[in-house]
Request: fold
Amino acid sequence: MGEKFRRAVNAPHQAFGRARKKITAMKPKTKRGKVARATGITMTGVFQFLLWAIKYAALDNSALLAGERALRNMKVGKNKNGENKKFPDMVKKYPNLSVHVISYLMFAVTVGGVRACHDMVGDKDSGPAVPRTEFAQNTGDAQKARPGTYGAYLNRMQAITPLLIADLIAKEGVHTDERGMHTPYLDSKGVPTIGFGSTVLSDGSKVTMDTPPITTQQAYDLAKWHLERGETFFVMYCYDAAFDKVDVSSTGEAFAMASIIYNSYNKLIEDPDDKNCRTRFEELRRLYAADGLNVTDGMVRGLFKKYPVTSPRSFGKQWLGGAKPSVLADSLGNFLAGGRGMYWRRWLEAGLITGDITPDMMLRCPANGMYEFFKVMGQKRGAFFTGDGRNIHINKKTYGEFKKWLQNPVNEKGEKLKWKRVRDVLPTAIRGQCDRGWCALGENKKTAAAFAKSAKKVRNNAHSADFDVSGFVFDEHTMA
Reply:
């Protein structure tokens, strides 16, 4: 048995030795490469030494082995029934027991040290940790994406992710326990939800009321995963790549469209029960699962050509046809069914399209403040949209009321809301990015650098199981 432990320790000891030799043989030319080489040599050497120490302290410790031999031979008499006492029998049955126990403990310490060092290196990358998906492992981060691919599109869009999560907080609020951990709750439709409006975990399972609590960082990461790696930005990309007149070029429009798709997938754009729509997106999901960030504009256009949009909604017809922001915003008034909450949600998205609502306004809104503002306005449709039939328009006067309300947020009784503002709920690092103005659509160097670190976390610091996007059911979110 002792020899089995010896082999178990020798295997990783020899593996670290081989790794150290390979790293030593490398000849990097850049300064970063040289630092990485030196770090690799040091780390593999340290762990090789620790594994040797395990053998020396336990398996090869002559004093420890002699003590166990003496213990086995020690005569301690019999019990009252005339039987040998159990302890010496156990020692005889399991020779070198303490050696094996000490080996286990030291090996666990060594493995724990490897994990701790891995985590420390990951923390130096800063940026939020992100649940890892199968395609994300294989395709790298968006910063290295080729032009004309989904990766390049995501590179431009991911700067507004914090704003979209801020929007969720403004709509959903914060549901935490006394420790500040986010706990499951039932949303307005009675669906179990966690964090910032997530009903599905990144391993594909549904949130339940028994889902373990998560931290604020994990809540942010999960919402980020849904937006960037789940479905939202990819659906936007598909329509943007397929239609020449679709050009999401402003932060407000990107914010609004992502909100619409996050909540309703493509139901406001075309009939999801249309055969072409259903078949096309089945193919797109398979394409996405296989190629991830490397999906090209040409691939998407080919599927839209094979399965064209034949049943556009009123909003979809305007958006795909390149309508003016004011016309596009008014067309959202055709989708107010499903409860009075749709009034202010569609009104908010319309305001983002026209510019009457700015991202900064959402960051200054109290958590769950949008519902409170809705009640202040009497929960009436006329406060948000006016007219009927084909003559529906957004009520622009309410945008002015919203701006005033943000200066002194109160409830419907006029009592001041003392809730945290959305920006103060966001993780500290993300709040800093927003405060520095990095959360704006486009490719500037500061934004790219900040989000490159976040993308790297997809590979290095995942806190959930790998997830193959082909198994995900893209369906309507109910949380926002």
Summary: The first helix runs from residue 2 to 25. Residues 157 and 441 are 6 Å apart (CA to CA).
